[in-house]
Write a structure and sequence with these properties.
By secondary structure, the chain is an alpha/beta fold. The protein has 15 helices and 26 strands. Helix content is about 30%, strand content about 25%. The chain binds adenosine monophosphate. The site of adenosine monophosphate (AMP) has 18 residues, from strand 14, strand 20 and strand 21.
Length: about 500
């Protein structure tokens, strides 16, 4: 029977087999991880936290982030947050989530601490103990906590395992609740797509506050009874040493990481020669066919491009493993949910036609939280509209041709242009601002902003950027700010973000 909870999914691994590793550390076995999940359930329950209570998690990347996610998800709702957020961002998320506690690594400075204290969100320290295996930890509340959770014990299939925010077309990020059965379905789909077996070893370099790393690297590995070795995060200088030490059979990353790895491949020929990669996976942004070809040649392994999205608990489509063909420039075949193309009237269109990519399946969220307007426009006849535009060829391979939503995809990191607009509008010299995507050779897209200053006021590009950086995590801060007398309008007289870079002559 298919496992429908994170805890049941862990039951697959052999007791003495490694589950979670980290470079230069001894691994935590499946038995160890199951014990940790049981202990965490008891500890959180004793603090008054139980099923469907939200636990915000701010941890550096690494094995503790992976184990905290797994252990907390087995009895409550995890809400991982990007540690790079500024205080204002943490405040928004902790309030919006109605977090019952903030889990934060012992010894780590973070503006989240002061924000949690101000909001009366209890802080619980995650104290790593790597002598017991990578990712082993104990929980230590800053102040004594007690209480009786409404629903103690193990999470049920319809409980929410994970909540993430998406930077959508609105400035206010939307909460995406993913049920235990949603995340388990994704883990199963990825396991099948990649034919993962207990002997596989994944090297994780993806951030573990994002759906890609959590599902594709961590949960799918564990679902297969395989192991995931959790690095402290992508580092081009250390990647090859990890490759040599960990001997992974695969890794998954965004295209910019693959490009950076390729740029250093020449001087690491010996390590590459000894490496044992069975496959390389790419997702979250489009992989240029040239990069795919160069990666395959360098590592002598198939590169599997997949298409993922938070609302789908990540994977929607993927190129298949050999001997079936992978098509460069395509994100592959439906790989879990059903995938179809819809016209603006809500009709499904035949193969070969262009339209909005829509999905339906057990991995898809039941809907945004407390946001009927967003759900009304996101779901049509039971299909979830991705906001991406594409076409299916006659063999069922999906090609993404554009985007209907106003998101900026900065090398896989998503930025809502409206959120950046709102922040910059608070600058006293700014009369009008439009944030838009500017083409970038490595990232695909970079954040840029066009600003009209108030009459008689002055501001430099530097001042606008510094102002934005006080409120926004670095990746959202426009790399380029252009000052204009007037923002160019589209044919309909509406401000148009799409095509603005071209109009302003901003290319790579
Ligand atoms: P996220 O929710 O951060 O996973 O972002 C989802 C969005 O990333 C999708 O709606 C697409 O716009 C984009 N995306 C994901 N995978 C790919 C891919 N392989 N090629 C192009 N865009 C992608």
């Amino acid at each position: 029977m298919a496992a429908d909870t994170v805890l049941d999914l862990l039951a697959r691994g052999a007791a003495s087999a490694p589950a979670i590793g980290a470079p230069e550390n001894k691994p935590l076995t499946f038995a160890g991880l199951r014990d940790l999940a049981a202990k965490t359930t008891a500890d959180l329950n004793a603090m008054g936290i139980g099923r469907n209570d939200r636990v915000a998690i701010v941890l550096p990347n690494g094995p503790e982030m992976a184990t905290t996610f797994i252990a907390v998800a087995s009895c409550a709702t995890t809400a991982p947050l990007n540690p790079a957020y500024r205080a204002d961002e943490f405040e928004f998320y902790l309030i919006d989530l109605k977090a019952k506690a903030l889990l934060i690594q012992q010894g780590e400075e973070s503006p989240a601490r002061a924000v949690a204290a101000k909001l009366d969100v209890p802080i619980v320290e995650v104290v790593p103990d790597r002598s017991k295996g990578a990712g082993y930890f104990t929980l230590k509340p800053e102040k004594p906590m007690s209480g009786k959770p409404a629903h103690p014990g193990k999470a049920e299939p319809d409980d929410i395992a994970l909540v993430l925010h998406t930077s959508g077309t609105t400035s206010r990020p939307k909460i995406v609740p993913l049920a235990q059965r949603n995340v388990c379905a994704t883990a199963r789909h990825i396991t099948q797509t990649l034919s993962l077996t207990p002997s596989d070893i994944c090297l994780n370099i993806m951030p573990l506050f994002h759906i890609h790393g959590l599902m594709a690297a961590v949960l799918s590995s564990l679902a297969a009874g395989a192991s995931v070795n959790c690095s402290p995060g992508f580092n081009a200088l250390r990647f090859f040493a990890w490759l040599d030490e960990v001997k992974p059979s695969w890794y998954t990353a965004v295209p910019t990481m693959h490009q950076t790895i390729l740029a250093r491949a020449d001087r690491n020929g010996e390590i590459i020669g000894r490496s044992k990669l069975r496959l390389i996976r790419s997702s979250s942004a489009s992989l240029p066919p040239q990069v795919m070809a160069a990666l395959e040649k360098t590592f002598n392994a198939p590169v599997i491009e997949a298409y993922g999205m938070t609302e789908a608990a990540h994977q929607m489509a993927s190129n298949p493993l050999p001997p079936r063909s992978r098509k460069p420039g395509s994100v592959g075949l439906a790989a879990g949910p059903e995938v179809a193309i819809m016209d603006t009237e809500g009709n499904l269109v035949p193969r070969g036609s262009l339209g909005e990519i829509v999905i339906k399946g057990p991995n898809v969220t039941a809907g945004y939280e407390a946001n009927p307007a967003a759900n009304a426009s996101a779901f049509t006849n039971g299909w979830f509209r991705t906001g991406d535009q594409g076409t299916l060829d006659d063999e069922g391979y999906l090609r993404i041709t554009g985007r209907l939503k106003e998101l900026i995809n900065r090398g896989g990191e998503k930025v809502s242009p409206l959120e950046v607009d709102e922040t910059i509008m608070d600058h006293p010299a700014v009369a009008q601002v439009v944030t838009f995507a500017m083409p970038h050779d490595k990232l695909g897209e970079e954040v840029a902003a066009a600003v009209v200053l108030r009459e008689g006021q002055n501001a430099t590009e530097r001042e606008i950027r510094d102002f934005a950086a006080k409120k926004l995590a670095d990746f959202k801060v426009p790399r380029k700010v252009v000052f204009l007398q007037e923002i160019p309008k589209g044919a309909t007289g509406k401000l148009q973000r799409i095509g603005l870079a071209e109009k302003l002559g901003l290319g790579t």
